[in-house]
Amino acid sequence: MVYTDADGAIKGAIEKPSDSGTTYLQWATATSIKRKPLPGSSTWGDVTEIADNLTGTDWHTMKQVGGANYIANGSKLALVGYDDSWTNEALDIIPGRLIKTIIERNGRAVSGTYPAGYPNKGVNGAIDCEYPLVQIGDDGNLFFANFTDSMPVKRFPGGGRVNPGGVANEVDQIEIFDWVFGADSWVDRQSLGNMSIWGVFDADSGKNGLYYYGRKNKEQPFTMNLEYALDVDEIGAVVNIDGTTIASYKDGDDFGVKAVDSTAKAQGTWEGLEYRTPIKKAEQITKFDRVEVFMDELPVGCSVYFYYQKNKSGDWVQAYTADGNQAFTSTGGKKAVFRIGAEMDIYEPRIIMTPSGNTTPEIFRIITYFE
Which neighbouring-strand residues pair with 321? Predict the structure, then answer.
């Protein structure tokens, strides 16, 4: 079913409960906000307009907080209450800033803004996972959003940015609530199992797609991984539904939705950090001899390739196996040896893992030898 709003582009949408017992899908165009009961009519003949006095702006991002729908409305927050009441100016922020993102935290709405006239210089997207994070600007920088720290946390390797709806938790399992007697609703909640997902676009070629950042176990380090490469013009919304990650996208004149396929693996690439050779007593360039790649038993039809980059040249050089082959393909093999034989001061490794159906190589560690 495709619904086209006669008032133009939809700039925000949310699912919202009501004290009447009905759950609505609410959305906004440039100046109008509308709703449809769920599931309601299959022909969408039950769409009604709530109001037509929103400020015409690029973003009407929405977030349901405590049963109310908070709506980005230029320099103000609009609000559809739990009792279905309406105001287009529930909050007026400082002049010169426009609201782009809204998240829920501790029963409150937290807004991210950008300077008027510079839409990519402010907060593009936000998420509360193990740590509250925001993505700011168009160069891929992640910052803490805890109102305390001000340093960047991480940067997407190819730069880029996200849309307000292009951020999600891999698991958003709300099971813990805190309520103070006399309050109208809960005042705090905890979402469990939070690995953040970022739909990054406008990055360097080959660096766009769905990034995961965080950890799944307290004993593990925080890591960033381009989990699903997706070189498209724009990634709109990202959600995780019952364990399946879904993303909307725009590529040229094509629009669509992609979902992760749990029955097939994609080719994987692992890149190591720069390794700078130790200082020697005599001036001598280090010669890298070979690398050993240890893995689980290689599944049938799978293969492992090894590349290296020397002295930050930007070019990846393929290393051949000890037998002179481009790839290690020995079914059941647990160790591959690749020859390097090159002098360099700065060394960066890259492993490419080619799957077969839903099986893939599983790398444990690599050891590099040099003279």
Answer: 338
- Antiparallel, parallel or unpaired: β 123-128 and 132-136: antiparallel
The tokens describing 298, both together, are 């290689």
Total of domains in the chain: 2
**Number of residues in the chain:** 371
Please state, in angstroms and as integers, the Cα–Cα distance from residue 277 to each residue in 317, 321, 339, following that order. 18, 23, 18
Among 172, 199, 110, which Cα is nearest to 146's? 110
pLDDT, tens digit, 9 for 90 and up, residues 84-108: 999 999 999 988 999 999 998 877 8
Hey, what's the torsion of the CAs at 60, 64, 68, 71, to 10 degrees? -10
SS3 label, residue 11 = coil
Whether the Cβ atoms of residue 64 and residue 53 lie closer than 8 Å to each other? no
- Asked if residue 115 has a cis previous peptide bond (ω within 30° of 0), the answer is no
Shared domain for 96 and 243, answered yes or no, is: yes
359: β partners: 356
Q: Which domain holds residue 136?
A: 12-260
Q: What is the pLDDT of residues 139-173, one digit of tens each?
A: 999 999 988 888 889 999 999 999 999 999 887 66
CB 100 within 8 A of CB 61: yes
Token reading at 239? 């959600």
- 229 - beta bridge partners? 209
Distance, in Å, from the CA atom of 136 to the CA atom of 127, rounded to the nearest integer, reads 12
Q: What is the pLDDT of residues 323-353, one digit of tens each?
A: 999 999 999 999 999 999 999 999 999 999 9
The answer as to whether 7 is a domain residue is no
CB atoms within 10 A of CB 355: 17
Q: pTM score, two decimals?
A: 0.86
